[in-house]
Structures are given as C-alpha cells and as structure tokens.
Amino acid sequence: MTEREQLGTRGGAFPADVGLMVRKAGGEVDVVPLQSARLSVFDAAVPWRDFRWYRGQRHFSGSYWSATMQSHVGYESRLEYANLLLADFDPRVDWILSQPFLLEGEDKGTRRRHIPDYLIVHADQTVCVVDVKPAAKLTIPKVRDSLSWSRRVIEPHGWEYRVQSEPDEVLLRNVEFLAGYRRPFQFADGDVTGALGELRSPMAFGEAVRAIPAVAGGLLAARALVLHLLWARRLSTDLTRLLSATSGPPPSFGPVAVRVVGFQLMGALPSVVDRCEVSER
Does the model's pTM come out above 0.85? Predict the structure, then answer.
C-alpha cells in the first residue's frame, strides 16, 4: 500500500454518519464514509457539478489549463479562478481537483450537504480541502455555519481544511501575467537547461535576455523563456511587490534564480522587463 493510499485519520473525533460522494467519469457515484476515504477514490473522479455558461449568468464560470495537471480545471467564479491560479503556481502542489465531492451529514439536528471547491494534494502527499468565499460573506450565519461544520468533519480525517478569500492584489497580478508563460511544452528542455547554464551571476533582466538568444532562438524567444523560468520557479523574484521598472531588489532567495528587479505591467500587457538579478539558492 502506497503512502498516498495510507492517508487516513490522525486524531480527532469522527462524526460517524458523514458520507463522502464522488462522481465518476461514467456517471456513477461512489459513496464512502468520510472516515474510510482514501485518495484512490478520486482516481476517476470528475467535478460534482457541470460548469455552465449562458447569457445573463450571474457568476463567471470557466475552464483553466493547469500546468500542474497538464489539463483543464474548472471554476465557478473569478475568485475561484484567482485562487486556482495561485495553487497552480505553488511548487508544493502536485494535484488539483475542482468540486471533488459532496459531503453530507448531521450537524446538531441539521442535515448538511456541502461541495468544497477544490481538493489539493501536495508533493509530500498531504491533502488540503479548499473552500473559496468572498471575505464579505464569511460572517453570514448560513455560510459561517456550513464552513465551520466542514472544518469539524474534515480535519479529524487528517486532511487540512482551508477557507480562501481575495488574494493579495499585487501577487495575483504578477502571477496572472507570468501564467501566460506557464506551458512547458512551448519550451524545449534543451533551451531550459542551456538558459540556466548561462544565467549564473547577478545581471539586469535585459542582460539575462541578451545572454541567451543563441540558446532560445532570438531575443523575443529569450524573453519568453526567462519569464517561463520565473513561472516554473527555476528563477525567482519578490512577487509581493508590483513588478515595475522602478522596483527595488528582492530579498535573498535560494537555487539558481534570476531575480527580477522590475518590469512594467500595462493592464494585462507587460512592457519589457527592466532588471533582474541571478543568485545561487
């Protein structure tokens, strides 16, 4: 039995009647007690609800191509999209499933049914169940009670439970821009290796780009490659500050990393990146 398969309870008291329902690609539904749930139950899982688009729709649904999953992951609001994007950028995340299951059980005489927004598995095999809610709605009694019940029944299973709201605006803008360069199949492995071999000392971003045109096949391709390496965390920068031509140096980082000092964001479209540094991590 694998480590992933062995994940189970780690303390806490289990409500005995809490059930977990997982929809499969063929349309059938698996029903298991939460206390018996293992990650293998999600091997052929699909989102519990269909993602729909229609005229006059009040919320913003969509499908995002995830670099982590190498396939599309659905979302039902712009806020879900923002948190999905940040999860895809997180190097600790190994697997993402949207609307992973329907949770059903008793809560002090009230029958509750709840569908979390995401199930995330990290590279160390720890599991996180995520609900995404606007911060302004977290004090609404119906929302608060539903999320509180979800936490009480999920955490005793050894899975982390997290409620996420609006992310930092600067971080989101930076990551959303870098996501344009997230697709690894657009960059040859040899180009990535060659670029990292050239970028071994502190330099301006323009210098980094000009150092690898022979590797990448031209200046525009070199710029895209450097930005891809930033997305892939092979290069790094301080993303808590809006990247601009006047940004100061970021804090110290760690493996080989080009650290961008700044590039200009013009709405969703950037101008040329201004400066960066390279350091060993």
Answer: no
